Amino acid sequence: MLSFNETELGGIEDDSLIPFGENLESISRLLDNSSFYGTASYQISNALWGTLKDLKLEVLIGVSMEDLFGADEPIRSKYLAFEIFGTKTANPSNLVLAVNSIYVSGQAKDWHKSVVREGGDGRREDDGASLLLPQHKNTPRTIILSFSTVGFCYNLKLVSHLALQLREAEYIEEGIGEAEVLRRGGRDRGEILQWDCGPVAAASLLLASTMGDKRPRSVSSPDLYLDVLHQYFSGGSRDLQTDQRAEEGIKEDDGGSKVAEMESIEAAMECDGGTKSGGGPTDGDITSNTKTDVPAMKEVVDPTGDFKNMAESLSHCITMELLEHEPECSTDMTENHAPLIRGLPDDIAIFCIARVPRRYHMILKSVSKRWRELVCSEEWSSYRKKHNVEETWIYAICRDKSDLIHCYVLDPNSSRRCWKLVQGLPPRCLKRKGLASEVLGKKLYLLGGCSWSEDASHDVYCYDASKNTWDEAASLSTARCYFACEALNEKLYAVGGVTSSSSDPCSWDTYDPSTSSCMTLLDPNIFPDIQESVVLDGKIYIRGAVSTMSQHIPALVYEPTSSEWQHVDEDLVLGWHGPAVVVDSTLYVLDQRSGTRLMMWQAKSRDWVSVGRLSPLLTRPPCRLVAIGKSIFVIGKGLSTVVLDLAKAGNVGGVMVSSSVPKLDSDVDVISCKTLSI
Amino acid sequence: MSSTKIFLKSSDDKTFEIDETAARASETLKNIIDGGCLDGVIPLPNVSSNILPKVIEYCKKHGGDNGSSKKIANGGVDKDKEILPDYDEEEDKREKVRVDELKKWEEEYMDFDQQVLYDLMLAANYLHIKGLLDLTVEKAASMIRGRTPDQIRENFNINSDFTPEEEEEMILIEDEWDDEWAFD
C-alpha cells in the first residue's frame, strides 16, 4: 500500500499556485499521448490516468474541456471525461489531482446511484464536480479528487495514489464504479473553493451532499462547513475501521483489494447518508458570499488534530473565491473578493454587465472598485469582443489654430452623435508636429514628432481607452517625425519620415508594446517622405510624395513573411491619391484633388473605379478616413464627419447619400483618425 | 413525437411535466433526450419548484424554436404555405403580428422580482436555454444602462467601497465626460 506523507496535507506551498497556460507543453504532450476523443468513457479516463502516471509529472497539469474537445465542440453522448488538474509532489507516490467538470452521458447509467439521483444520466455536468473516493488509513479521512475551475488551480493538496487506485478499482469496469459523484449547485463554474487540506475538501463535498436538493448557489459560509465537518467526524471512527479492514484485505489477497476498497467506499457512503439524514444547516444565508471575516488561508491545518482544533483552523483556512470565467480575470481576485453582483456568480454577472453599451462604461467604473477593475481590465475588452458586443469608437488627433494637439472621440452608435474632447493629453506632446498615431488593442499610441526644441522625438504616449488615462510608453528606438505608422500583427510599424541626423532615414521600426521593445531595421528602398499608408491583406503599403521631376510616385509594400519592402505595382499607385481605408479587404481612397470623390480599387481587374462624389456641402477637405464595418467615415476640417454606408450606398445624381455628424465650433485640422473597439 | 412527455424533477422533489418538443428548447435537456438515456424523470437539482414552472412556460412558448420563430406561432399548420412565394407579403404581416405578440408575451412573462430574475438566469444558463438567458440577462443589463452609479448600487445592493476622496474625483471625471453621452 502506498504511504501517504502527512505533511503534504498541511499548509499551502505557493508553488502549488501555478497559472494555467504555463504548462501547455505538458498538456499537449498529455493530449498527444492519449486518444480520448470520442472513445468510451472508461477508456478515456484510463488513458488519462495511465498517461498521468507514466509522465511522472513534476509540474501542474491543467486540462480544460476546451483543450479536450475544442471550445465549440458539442458535447456528444456516450463518453465521460474529466477536466483534470494534477501535480506530482516531491514524493513520487503523491500525485496530486483535481477533477473538474465531469461530463456524463450515454451509457453512464452504471454510475453510482447518486449520479442518477443527483445528476441524472446523460447530463452534461459542467458546473464543477467531484469524486469522493475511498479513504485511506493515513490520509486523515480524505482522499479527494476535487474540482477547480478553468484557469487556476488553487492550493490543491490532494492525495496521490488514488489515481492509481482508481485505475484498479471497479471504476474501470463500471464506468466509474463506486465513486460517489457530488456536485456543487448552481451555475458556479466561475467559483473556486480554495482549500489547502483534505478535511476541507471533504467538508465541501459532504456539504454538497448534505445540502441535498437545497444546494447552495454559492457555498460560502465557513459555519456550514464546520457543521458538516462536525457530522462527518462524529462518524469517523467507523471509517477508520473500514480502512483497516481494507488494508487487511489487501494484505491477505491482492485480488481481494477491490472488495476491501469497495467496503471502504460503502462506509464512506453510509457516512454520507448519515450526514444527509442528519440534515445539514441548509437554512443559513447560503447565497450571500461574504468573506470579509474570513482571513486569508495561510494557516496550516493539522489533519490529525481533534475536531475542535480542526474546526478552528478551518474557519481560518476556508475561503471562497469568486473567479471570472476567463482565467486571466483572476489576477486581481486576491485583492477584492466581493462578487460583482450579490447573488449571482461572477461569470453571469459579467454577462449582464458586459452588455451595457460602451458609453455607460464611465458610469460602471464608479459603482465599486470591483466594477472598476472589471471595466478597466484587458479581459473586459476581450470578453466583449468574444461575445460580439464590442463597440468601435473613433479617435481623432487634431491641431487647433494655435498649433496645439487635441484628441477627440466619437461614438458612432450614440443616438446623439457628437465629437467629444478627450482630456489629459500629456503636455509634452501638445506642441508636437509630425507625430503619428495608431491603435493596438484598447490603446491609442502617439508616437514621435518634433517640436521647437528637438528635431525628432523618441517619445511614445499611450491612451488607455477603458481607463481613460494617458501614460508614457516605451520609446521608439529611432527618433522620428512625419513618418508613417501602421499596426500589423499586434505590433506597430514606424516607417521612414524625418529621423534625427545620426539615424539612417531609410529605416523602419517595429514596436511591440507588449514587451516594450523596439527594433530599428534598414531597407534601402524606404524613402523618408511618406504621405499615405494603409494595411491591406496583411501587408503595409506606403506611398510617397509626387516628385516634380518625374511622374513616378514611390510606393512600397511590406511583406511581414519576408520582412522586405517591395515596390508596388504602378496601376495601384496611380490611383492612390489621398487617404486610404480598407473595407472588406477592398481598398478605398478619397481623392480630394477636385471635390471629394471616393475611389475603389478593384483588385481582380486591377483598376480604380469611382464609387461616387461627396456633397461639397458636407465635406470639408482635407479629410481623413476610417471604417467601421461597412461604413466609411470621412472626417474633415472642424471634425465635420460624413458617414457612407457602403452596404446601402445610394448614388443620387452622382452624389452619394450619406449621414453626417455635427462639426465642432472651432476649425481644427484633422491629423489622423483611428478606430478603437471595446 | 410532440405528445411524448418528459418529467422534470425540481431540487425540492416536485415533478413537472413537459412536452418533448418544448424540452428541446433546452440544450441540456435536448442532449439528454438525444443521448437516448431518458429514464423516466430528469432530476434538475439546480432548479427549484418555484422557478421550474417558469422555465417550462418559456420552453412551451419557444419549444422547437431553433432560430426560426415562424414555426412556433404557426403550430405547424401553415408550414406548407410558407414555402409559396405568393404568400410573402401576407407572411410578413403575420410575422410582424407574431413578433409583436411574442414581445407582449415576453413583457408579461418577465414581470417578476429580482430574485426570480437571478434564479431564472441561473436556470437558463444551467439548462442552456439561450433565448431565456438572453432575455433575463438583457433585463439585468437594462437595470444598469443609463443609470447613475447610485442607482446601479441600489438596484443590485452593492456597497460603494470608494473613499470619499475617490468618489469626489469620480464625480469630476463624470462631469467632464458629461451627461450628454451617458444618459441619453
Automatic annotation (TrEMBL), chain A:
Gene3D superfamilies in alphabetical order: Kelch-type beta propeller (2.120.10.80)
CDD domains to which the protein is assigned, alphabetical: F-box_AtAFR-like
Superkingdom of origin: Eukaryota
Chain intervals with Basic and acidic residues compositional bias: 240-256
UniProt entry keywords in alphabetical sequence: Kelch repeat, Repeat
All copies of domain FKB95-like N-terminal Kelch, residue ranges: 437-621
Keyword Repeat carried by entry: yes
Region (Disordered): 238-258, 270-293
InterPro entries documented for this protein: F-box-like_dom_sf (IPR036047), F-box_dom (IPR001810), Kelch-typ_b-propeller (IPR015915), Kelch_1 (IPR006652), Kelch_FKB95 (IPR057499)
Domain (F-box): residue spans on this chain: 343-378
Pfam families: F-box, Kelch_FKB95
Name of the protein in question: F-box domain-containing protein
TrEMBL record, chain B:
Keywords: Ubl conjugation pathway
GO biological process terms on file: jasmonic acid mediated signaling pathway; protein ubiquitination; ubiquitin-dependent protein catabolic process
Sequence ranges assigned to domain SKP1 component POZ in this UniProt record: 5-62
Keyword Chloroplast: no
Domain SKP1 component dimerisation: 130-170
Record flagged with keyword Transferase: no
One Pfam family here: Skp1_POZ
Pathway listed: Protein modification; protein ubiquitination
Region (Disordered): 69-88
Gene3D superfamilies xref list: Potassium Channel Kv1.1, Chain A
Subunit: Part of a SCF (SKP1-cullin-F-box) protein ligase complex.
Function recorded in the entry: Involved in ubiquitination and subsequent proteasomal degradation of target proteins. Together with CUL1, RBX1 and a F-box protein, it forms a SCF E3 ubiquitin ligase complex. The functional specificity of this complex depends on the type of F-box protein. In the SCF complex, it serves as an adapter that links the F-box protein to CUL1.
Protein family according to the UniProt entry: Belongs to the SKP1 family.
Name this polypeptide is given: SKP1-like protein
